[in-house]
From TrEMBL:
Its EC number is 3.1.1.-. PROSITE patterns: CARBOXYLESTERASE_B_1. Residues 9-307 form the Carboxylesterase type B domain. Gene3D superfamilies: alpha/beta hydrolase. It comes from the Bacteria. Coiled coil: none annotated. SUPFAM superfamilies: alpha/beta-Hydrolases. The keyword Hydrolase applies. Keywords: Hydrolase. InterPro entries: AB_hydrolase_fold (IPR029058), CarbesteraseB (IPR002018), Carboxylesterase_B_AS (IPR019826). Belongs to the type-B carboxylesterase/lipase family. The lineage of its organism: Bacteria, Bacillati, Actinomycetota, Actinomycetes, Kitasatosporales. This is Carboxylic ester hydrolase. One of its GO terms (molecular function) is hydrolase activity.
Length: 455
């Protein structure tokens, strides 16, 4: 019997929010947490949204910061939704939930693209496990991370901090516990988690952290300004607040896409968190050694990340380049983070996702998300994972993540950043779904760099 979709109304400090309930899952989509970043606010710090004067219709996804996808095809379905109110968030909650732990999920996309409206981020399985899921949007690319004169640095991270403030003030009305908030994310979202954990401004805004294929993704200010300069030349405007502000977000994002295409990707990251302000005072690894010591951290990477799809003798060079990105940008970050937090009072736990997708050619970037969210039936999963991805692996991975959000420590030993640290292996061929191992991550960072693409 199909569950009936009915109106669901919440009275929150933000105002009256009207969503939908289907069976035991409640959805409130596209709720603005800040004023729309348009006009004078486009390159300004986010401003909290005023209380709704009329009931807010939260029955559909809100506008996305992504106007132009970075690539023609992406592993994760990443819809672009038009509109100005891009600083919005969606809440998926269990029916009749009270004081449930909260998972705030930050999407990836290389800080240039991505969408919180992806069906892979639907929190229905977490709602089943008495967890409230929140998926915020944040400014991307030039609007979120370009270091421009007269513009507060790291606007995208400031957006996320304000979203966490909204959660603290409003989530109880949706059945969540503001004292049990886990911030989590994948790829750029995982990097944002580590940045927020290393920031003095993160204190008190969340209580546990999960970084899925994240890393130390801060971008040098000089390199970011150089990219902005080349982008301005490409678009025919000075690389300034007024120059980029005279163009639409769509045209700026289209320029980023074309410039990266012309220059062969222009490096793994061209824009992202910049060090030197009140949000990110020092590099992330240094910040982790000082801040967030009372916040338990779970982090890991996939076994192949960006080297799984280039198989065969003819693609040896591409595979070697992808392996360098996999090792230096993603996998090496796991023991480095553990080493930085060696003196933390809360533990750091590592995992490695090893299940090889028969479609993508390995345990590649993004392939683990449908397992963690337990949404193997979501649109796009068959195209990425094949028609028979192992449901028992999704059950195991989702259960571990849900238990962590609920406040339980992982079943394996914490890591300290030393060779031989324990790590949970997920989906290694020939191993059970609950297999643990040691020595998965080598903390020695390999030399070299290569080009990566955000999914």
């Amino acid at each position: 019997m199909t569950a009936v979709d009915v109106v669901d109304v919440v009275e929150a400090p933000a105002g009256t929010v009207v969503g939908r309930r289907t069976g035991r899952v409640r959805r409130f989509l596209g709720i603005p947490f800040a004023e729309a970043p348009i006009g004078a606010r486009r390159f300004a710090a986010p401003v909290p949204r005023g209380r709704f004067r009329q009931p807010f219709d939260a029955s559909r996804h809100g506008a996305t910061s992504q106007r132009v996808p970075l690539f023609a095809t992406t592993t994760i379905p990443e819809p672009s939704v038009p509109g100005d109110d891009v600083l919005n968030l969606s809440v998926v909650a269990p029916a009749n939930g009270v004081s449930c732990p909260v998972l705030v999920w930050i999407h990836g996309g290389g800080f240039l693209a991505g969408s919180p409206a992806s069906p892979w981020y639907d929190g229905r399985a977490f709602a089943r496990d008495s967890i409230v899921t929140v998926t915020p949007g944040y400014r991307l690319g030039v609007d979120g991370f370009a270091p421009l004169d007269g513009v507060p640095p790291n606007l995208g991270l400031r957006d996320l901090l304000l979203a966490l403030d909204w959660v603290r003030e409003n989530i109880a009305a949706f059945g969540g516990d503001p004292g049990r908030v886990t911030v989590a994310g994948q790829s750029a979202g995982g990097g944002a988690v580590l940045a927020l954990l290393s920031s003095p401004l993160g204190k008190g805004r969340f209580h546990r952290a999960v970084s899925v294929s994240g890393g130390f993704f801060e971008v040098g200010a000089d390199a970011a300004r150089s990219f902005a300069g080349r982008l301005g030349d490409r678009l025919g405007v000075p690389p300034t607040r007024d120059g980029f502000g005279a163009l639409t977000v769509e045209s700026v994002q289209q320029g980023v896409r074309l410039l990266r295409s012309e220059r062969g990707g222009d490096g793994p990251l061209v824009l992202g968190p910049v060090v030197g302000d009140d949000v990110l005072a020092v590099p992330v690894a240094e910040g982790l050694a000082v801040h967030g010591h009372g916040v338990p951290l779970l982090l890991g990477a996939t076994g192949d990340e960006f080297d799984g799809g280039a198989r065969g003798i003819g693609n040896a060079a591409a595979r070697a380049a992808g392996t360098r990105v996999t090792d230096t940008l993603f996998r090496a970050a796991c023991p480095r983070a553990a080493a930085s937090r060696r003196d933390a009072t809360a533990g750091t736990w590592l995992y490695s996702f090893e299940w090889p997708s028969p479609v993508l050619g390995g345990a590649v970037h993004c392939a683990d998300i449908p397992f963690f969210f337990d949404v193997l039936d979501a649109p796009g999963t068959a195209e990425a994972l094949g028609t028979q991805p192992p449901s028992e692996l999704a059950t195991s991975m989702h259960a571990d993540l849900a238990a962590f959000v609920h406040g339980r420590s992982p079943a394996w030993e914490p890591a300290t950043g030393r060779l031989g640290d324990p790590a949970r292996e997920y989906g290694r061929p020939g191993a059970t779904s609950a297999a643990d191992t040691t020595g998965v991550f080598d903390p020695v960072v390999a030399a070299g760099s290569a080009t990566a693409e955000a999914c």
